[in-house]
Amino acid sequence: MKVILHDLKGPYAGLIASKSDRAIEADGKYAPCQGCFGCWTKHPAGCFMKDALQQVCRIIGQADELVIITKNLYGGYSADVKNVLDRSIGTSTPFSTYRGRQMHHTLRYGKHALWRVIVYGEITEAEKATFRYLAERNAINDGFERSEVTFLENLSELEGLL
After folding, report:
1. Can you name the CATH fold of 2-161?
2. Nearest one of 12, 21, 19, 28 to 155, comparing CA atoms
3. Which of 29, 73, 90, 97 lies 20 to 30 Å (CA to CA) from residue 83?
Protein backbone atom coordinates (compact mmCIF):
# COMPACT_ATOMS: atom_id res chain seq x y z
CA MET A 1 0.00 0.00 0.00
CA LYS A 2 1.32 3.45 -0.93
CA VAL A 3 0.62 6.16 1.65
CA ILE A 4 1.32 9.83 0.99
CA LEU A 5 1.67 12.18 3.95
CA HIS A 6 1.76 15.81 2.83
CA ASP A 7 1.43 19.42 3.94
CA LEU A 8 0.34 20.78 0.55
CA LYS A 9 -2.61 23.09 0.16
CA GLY A 10 -5.03 23.66 -2.68
CA PRO A 11 -4.85 22.00 -6.09
CA TYR A 12 -2.57 19.12 -5.10
CA ALA A 13 -5.24 17.08 -3.26
CA GLY A 14 -6.57 15.49 -6.46
CA LEU A 15 -3.11 14.59 -7.72
CA ILE A 16 -2.13 13.01 -4.42
CA ALA A 17 -5.38 11.05 -4.13
CA SER A 18 -4.90 9.63 -7.64
CA LYS A 19 -1.29 8.56 -6.94
CA SER A 20 -1.79 6.86 -3.55
CA ASP A 21 -3.84 4.21 -1.80
CA ARG A 22 -4.20 6.47 1.24
CA ALA A 23 -3.45 10.16 1.70
CA ILE A 24 -2.85 11.89 5.02
CA GLU A 25 -3.15 15.65 4.87
CA ALA A 26 -1.00 17.35 7.50
CA ASP A 27 -3.24 20.39 7.73
CA GLY A 28 -2.80 21.15 11.43
CA LYS A 29 -6.49 20.59 12.23
CA TYR A 30 -5.80 18.06 14.97
CA ALA A 31 -4.24 17.87 18.40
CA PRO A 32 -0.52 17.30 18.90
CA CYS A 33 0.68 14.09 20.54
CA GLN A 34 0.11 14.20 24.30
CA GLY A 35 2.94 11.77 25.06
CA CYS A 36 0.66 9.45 27.01
CA PHE A 37 1.94 6.31 25.20
CA GLY A 38 -1.61 4.94 25.16
CA CYS A 39 -1.09 3.98 21.51
CA TRP A 40 1.66 1.67 22.79
CA THR A 41 -0.07 0.18 25.82
CA LYS A 42 -3.77 0.90 26.47
CA HIS A 43 -5.12 0.74 22.93
CA PRO A 44 -2.33 -0.48 20.62
CA ALA A 45 -1.91 1.50 17.37
CA GLY A 46 -4.90 3.70 18.16
CA CYS A 47 -4.94 7.16 19.70
CA PHE A 48 -7.39 8.14 22.43
CA MET A 49 -7.92 11.53 20.75
CA LYS A 50 -10.91 11.38 18.47
CA ASP A 51 -9.73 13.36 15.47
CA ALA A 52 -8.48 12.77 11.91
CA LEU A 53 -5.28 11.14 13.21
CA GLN A 54 -6.89 8.60 15.53
CA GLN A 55 -5.97 5.71 13.19
CA VAL A 56 -2.76 7.16 11.70
CA CYS A 57 -0.62 4.43 13.33
CA ARG A 58 -2.53 1.73 11.48
CA ILE A 59 -2.42 3.58 8.17
CA ILE A 60 1.34 4.25 8.29
CA GLY A 61 2.02 0.86 9.83
CA GLN A 62 0.45 -0.92 6.88
CA ALA A 63 2.29 1.13 4.24
CA ASP A 64 4.74 -0.64 1.97
CA GLU A 65 5.81 2.76 0.68
CA LEU A 66 5.50 5.97 2.70
CA VAL A 67 5.93 9.16 0.70
CA ILE A 68 6.29 12.32 2.77
CA ILE A 69 5.90 15.64 0.97
CA THR A 70 7.05 18.46 3.21
CA LYS A 71 8.23 22.01 3.19
CA ASN A 72 11.81 22.37 4.43
CA LEU A 73 12.07 23.66 7.97
CA TYR A 74 15.78 24.07 8.79
CA GLY A 75 16.64 20.64 7.40
CA GLY A 76 13.59 18.93 8.91
CA TYR A 77 9.93 18.25 8.35
CA SER A 78 7.34 21.02 8.50
CA ALA A 79 5.62 21.37 11.88
CA ASP A 80 2.38 19.81 10.60
CA VAL A 81 4.15 16.78 9.08
CA LYS A 82 6.23 16.35 12.26
CA ASN A 83 3.01 16.39 14.29
CA VAL A 84 1.58 13.52 12.23
CA LEU A 85 4.82 11.53 12.57
CA ASP A 86 4.75 12.11 16.34
CA ARG A 87 1.20 10.77 16.47
CA SER A 88 2.30 7.59 14.62
CA ILE A 89 4.60 6.27 17.36
CA GLY A 90 2.17 3.37 17.84
CA THR A 91 3.50 1.72 14.68
CA SER A 92 6.07 0.22 17.03
CA THR A 93 5.77 -1.32 20.49
CA PRO A 94 7.41 -0.28 23.76
CA PHE A 95 9.67 -3.35 23.59
CA SER A 96 13.19 -3.18 22.19
CA THR A 97 15.20 -5.29 19.78
CA TYR A 98 18.41 -5.05 17.80
CA ARG A 99 18.21 -4.09 14.13
CA GLY A 100 21.46 -3.42 12.31
CA ARG A 101 23.45 -3.78 15.53
CA GLN A 102 21.47 -0.94 17.10
CA MET A 103 18.66 -0.88 19.65
CA HIS A 104 15.22 -0.01 18.23
CA HIS A 105 11.61 -0.56 19.23
CA THR A 106 10.04 -3.71 17.87
CA LEU A 107 7.76 -3.18 14.90
CA ARG A 108 4.04 -3.74 15.31
CA TYR A 109 3.48 -4.22 11.56
CA GLY A 110 6.75 -5.71 10.33
CA LYS A 111 9.12 -4.46 7.65
CA HIS A 112 8.30 -1.96 4.90
CA ALA A 113 9.95 -1.17 1.58
CA LEU A 114 10.50 2.57 1.06
CA TRP A 115 10.54 5.73 3.21
CA ARG A 116 10.55 8.50 0.62
CA VAL A 117 10.74 12.20 1.35
CA ILE A 118 10.06 14.95 -1.18
CA VAL A 119 11.20 18.35 0.08
CA TYR A 120 10.19 21.70 -1.33
CA GLY A 121 11.14 25.25 -0.41
CA GLU A 122 14.46 27.02 -0.05
CA ILE A 123 17.17 24.76 1.29
CA THR A 124 20.92 25.04 1.86
CA GLU A 125 23.44 22.26 1.25
CA ALA A 126 23.84 21.77 5.02
CA GLU A 127 20.06 21.40 5.39
CA LYS A 128 20.03 18.86 2.55
CA ALA A 129 22.64 16.78 4.38
CA THR A 130 20.61 17.01 7.59
CA PHE A 131 17.44 15.94 5.77
CA ARG A 132 19.14 12.93 4.17
CA TYR A 133 20.43 11.79 7.55
CA LEU A 134 17.04 12.37 9.22
CA ALA A 135 15.20 10.35 6.56
CA GLU A 136 17.72 7.52 6.76
CA ARG A 137 17.41 7.29 10.57
CA ASN A 138 13.60 7.53 10.45
CA ALA A 139 13.49 4.73 7.89
CA ILE A 140 15.64 2.46 10.06
CA ASN A 141 13.68 3.26 13.19
CA ASP A 142 10.31 2.57 11.54
CA GLY A 143 11.44 -0.62 9.78
CA PHE A 144 11.77 0.60 6.21
CA GLU A 145 14.37 -1.16 4.06
CA ARG A 146 15.56 2.03 2.39
CA SER A 147 15.06 5.77 2.21
CA GLU A 148 15.16 8.33 -0.57
CA VAL A 149 15.13 12.12 -0.42
CA THR A 150 14.32 14.37 -3.37
CA PHE A 151 14.60 18.15 -3.32
CA LEU A 152 12.30 20.18 -5.58
CA GLU A 153 13.15 23.52 -7.06
CA ASN A 154 9.49 24.01 -7.95
CA LEU A 155 6.32 22.15 -6.93
CA SER A 156 5.39 21.79 -10.60
CA GLU A 157 7.94 18.93 -10.68
CA LEU A 158 5.86 16.93 -8.19
CA GLU A 159 3.58 15.08 -10.62
CA GLY A 160 6.48 13.33 -12.34
CA LEU A 161 7.83 12.08 -9.00
CA LEU A 162 4.72 10.40 -7.67
Report:
1. Rossmann fold (3.40.50)
2. 12
3. 97
